[in-house]
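Hi W., the 2-oxoglutaric acid complex you wanted:
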Amino acid sequence: MIKTRRSEGAATAVEGAARPWDARLAAWLVRPLIDSRVTPNHVTTLRLLLGLLGAACFAHGGFGWCNAGAILIVLSNFIDHGDGELARMSGKTSRIGHVYDLASDAVVTVGLFAGLGLGVAVTLPDRGASWWVAPPALGVIAGLAVALIFYVRLLLENRAGKAGSRQASFAGFETEDVLYLLPLITVFDATRGFLVAAAVGAPLFLILVLRDYWRVREAAPAAASDASTGMARAERSMANDDEHIALAGVGAAAFSNPEGGVDAGRADTGGHALGASMAPPMAAAEAAPSAVPSMRASAEVGTVDPDRAVAARVADFDAAAAKARFDEQGAFLFIEDFLPPEVTRGLIDCVRAVQSQANRNYLPGHKQGGSVSRHVIDEAAPFIAELYRSPALIGWLERLTGDRLLPSPDDDPHAYALYFYTRAGDHIGWHYDTSYYDGKRYTLLLGVIDDSSCLLEYRLHTRDEQRANVSGAARLRPGGFILFDGDKLHHRVTRLKEGEERVSLTFEYVTDPTLRGSRRVLSNLKDAVAYFGFRQVFRGMIGRRREPARRPDEPR
Ligand SMILES: O=C(O)CCC(=O)C(=O)O
Ligand SMILES: [Fe+2]
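Structure:
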């Protein structure tokens, strides 16, 4: 149960009288297992199986089955305390275990109520067609509401600490303990009344919990205390950037590979990633004015026209050479220093404006980090949207790719997004930026903040049988530019180390914005689970009329 696993991190705070009675009893029972081969995940699995068995008994319906189900559910709930207690005492805590525990809670809870509904339906004396639907529907409503209550309380705790999610507790009894009364309900054959009461009561209780959550959100934005350090880092990051520009100015080579080349030698072929980066030949001219770390970013941003700034910048590059390199590298190009410094400073301001709204997620074995979707950006950082639609930028990308590019549709949360690497271990594993659209999907990554040792590692030509794979790595510094065909570039970002920070901006452009039914569902699910959370993704879907993709220079 969530309440117990929560105590893993704050065991001492909850020790003693405030600890629920069943948690203390479970702790006493699992103590002999501390040095055994039994892990907390084994205990969670037992809880899950017993819970599902209990739910199945309820679904079968009938007096005897329901009583058996009640006993199994009580047992399952009690054992659910065991995993957390065992993890706490044996030090075998893990994030996967925590996620598994939460998922089991949700599955058993929804399963229990759905089973209860089904059982009521099959045993009703007069079974008209609607009765087959109504009780199971009540069950699902109650189950989902209870699962959501658990989840919101967890969010509350993440934001406000344990005190924030303090729940009704009397002499060590907590709200969840209602489920221990289940055998009483089945013994008195009161499952129907209980089902109706739960379907009405649980959603009402959910509203109360949500109200608490909104209150806490208003009072203490999650990253408020991080914001100031983030700001300091951002300034430092810009200082590094300026230093870097100044250095590049001295070299002033047409193509240089000072960072991207570091690891490029780790090619699958043993070869080199053929000058994966590009620097403009005129870096020296730009170096002097930009080499002053700016503390005036906010005042400045209002006056920066990203389109004009980019238009001026791209004129510095040899477009034909850049296009040739993009093609030679199988639709991939890294330009170490691309954005005009005033645009980068504008982006850093945007990061500050939205960082408290970053949705953090953790996909075991694949990804850990924070993200902010285009919907939040539209509200709080429109400068990014302006840059995304800059005709000069799109024109430059079209020149490189040779394709006519369109912005992603308005309801695509990934059209432009920020990725936050702010805690040790933040990373993303090997993947493609798969296109769910009918046409191609190009990803443009722009560096915003980089006080990190993270590398964007990539493999070229993995989907081209005619060519040997080539591996490389790029350090995406503030103002850096990486453009690639999402379906072609295999890439990952290495783990952030303690005390580091990295924020990147992604722009997605498509050649055909048609997104068919099931792929839309898949794309939204992926964005919700792996990036922005359901709230950001579905807020965008609900709040927005779907408009056809339009080029910025086209009339509305
Ligand atoms: O942060 C980056 O540089 C790239 C992240 C990435 O590849 C992704 O999230 O798909
Ligand atoms: Fe990616």
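Residues 323 and 500 are 34 Å apart (CA to CA).

W.
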